[in-house]
Amino acid sequence: MAIAEVTIIPLGTGSTSVSQYVAEIEKVLAKQEGVTHELTPMSTLIEGPLDRLFEVIQVLHEVPFANGAGRVSTSIKIDDRRDKPSSMAQKLKSVADKM
């Protein structure tokens, strides 16, 4: 299972506020099957099979365009661990166990 950190920034909107775009992206993400996600103050974490993550990210990248953005910048960071099972919860537990 892979984890992706995704930041989608709408540009050309006429405003410095992006919360409405983030809300629309979250609505679309909530309907996506085969992944789990967590919104953070600076990005969104998505967990699932790598091929599915790429599909979902492509869908999310289109949301600001559909809501009037003239340009969209999407940054993606992927953690794809294959030597043992990994998840967002497991990573947090691993750190907590060491504290």
TrEMBL record:
Pfam families: Thiamine_BP (PF01910). Residues 4-95 form the Thiamine-binding protein domain. It comes from the Bacteria. SUPFAM superfamilies: MTH1187/YkoF-like (SSF89957). Residues 76-99 are annotated as: Disordered. One of its GO terms (cellular component) is cytosol. InterPro entries: MTH1187/YkoF-like, Thiamine_BP, UPF0045_domain. Coiled coil: none annotated. Belongs to the UPF0045 family. This is MTH1187 family thiamine-binding protein. It comes from Paenibacillus albiflavus.
